[in-house]
Amino acid sequence: MDRIERDVVVIGAGACGLTAATQLRRSGASVIVLEARDRVGGRLRNDDSSGALLELGGQWVSPDQTALKGAIEELGLETFSRYRDGDSVYIGPDGVSHRFTGDIFPASPETQAEIERMIAVLDGLTAEIDPDRPWAHPRARELDGITWRAFLEQLSDDAEARSNVAMFTAEAMLTKPAHAFSALQSLLMAASAGSFSHLVDADFILDKRVVGGLQQVPLRLAAALGDDVLLSRPVRRITWSADGAVVEADGDLVVEARQVVLAVPPNLYDRIDYVPTLPLRRHVLHQHLSLGLVIKIHAVYEEPFWREDGLSGTAFSPYLSVHEAYDNSNHGDPRGILVGFASDARADRLLALEPDERREAILDDLARYYGERAKHPTIYVESDWGSEEWTRGAYAASFDMGGLERFGADVRTPVGPIHWASSDIAGAGYQHVDGAIRMGHWVADQVLAALAPTPA
């Protein structure tokens, strides 16, 4: 049995955990990072096994993500802009493909005006929400007691306008049906990005990518930490008290630490045994958080043929299984790459198909956006984070109905020496890598305060 002593043990080698470990070490604390996977990065993963670099998890950087941009700069990485020249494509309830520019889908003039009105109303509400304390809003209980779908039904009688507005936080972000989470949860998603308008603006929210892939952020952080990052070490038990904790992991590893950072998705918290058991409220809180489901589709072509047709590669439809898609071509690679997404119940239906049938259905949707050539990629890869043993969902956790107002104030409250941190429980940058990095810095500050000697 290996026995290690550290000031802090960090569980999870994603962007959050590695950021925390880096800051703790720089501040003089001794740290060990335990990762269940055989790699670092968490929900960031670059993969080139198919012959093309594909980012299977998170990948985009938006202008407001200052924590992520700071990490990218500090680590010496470069970014490039997503291709966006030309027309976007929208397929409405009539099944007809429409080309357009701008952010508002080309529906009837009445529906376009209604979408703009709804976004303005939602921007006003979003401006009232503190992303770090959404439960403190005066209408928090009311907004957390109505589903996103029902809230939009109260806001508008236009079904097409509602479907389009709902998509920006349901399918596109929380990856759950609009009846499965509250209006407050949706407004938190918007507030974490600065406004609802930011979620609508693909050129903003999906602005840049990192040359060589975003996983390089945790890879470089881990490289600097060296032997203090241990892979393939799932944590099985935490025995804790006011004086510290004993953490047991696979490989007969035992770590004695004064403080613990649990930097994993909330749906994995209860895969660890806690001795003594966690407080009742903490157990109940965990039961009200869950991740959504999404399939990320990568289709590689000899060239970005859609550009010849004057298309940007950006495409949307709340009426297709692949509800959004983008030009995802790599920096310096002449090949064209499309990335598409199918979430919530759409993913359920697709995953029920045999792999060949699912591929055909997905490529049929891409062909409706881009034409027949989209049916014939040279490389085709699906990434499904719901099937990942140490993730089991995407993109991040959200509360069920009423859970955010009821439990939100407690998600970051430590239990004895155990601290909780991840993009799933971030405020600004919620469910993005930016939020993971913000939470890494935040939890490091909390741990350093806990480690500081008590004044005499």
TrEMBL record:
One of its GO terms (molecular function) is oxidoreductase activity. Substrate binds at F341. Keywords: Oxidoreductase. Pfam families: Amino_oxidase. The keyword Oxidoreductase applies. The keyword Repeat does not apply. Its cofactor is FAD. Residues 16-448 form the Amine oxidase domain. FAD binds at E35, A36, V235. Belongs to the flavin monoamine oxidase family. This is Putrescine oxidase. It comes from Amnibacterium kyonggiense. The lineage of its organism: Bacteria, Bacillati, Actinomycetota, Actinomycetes, Micrococcales.
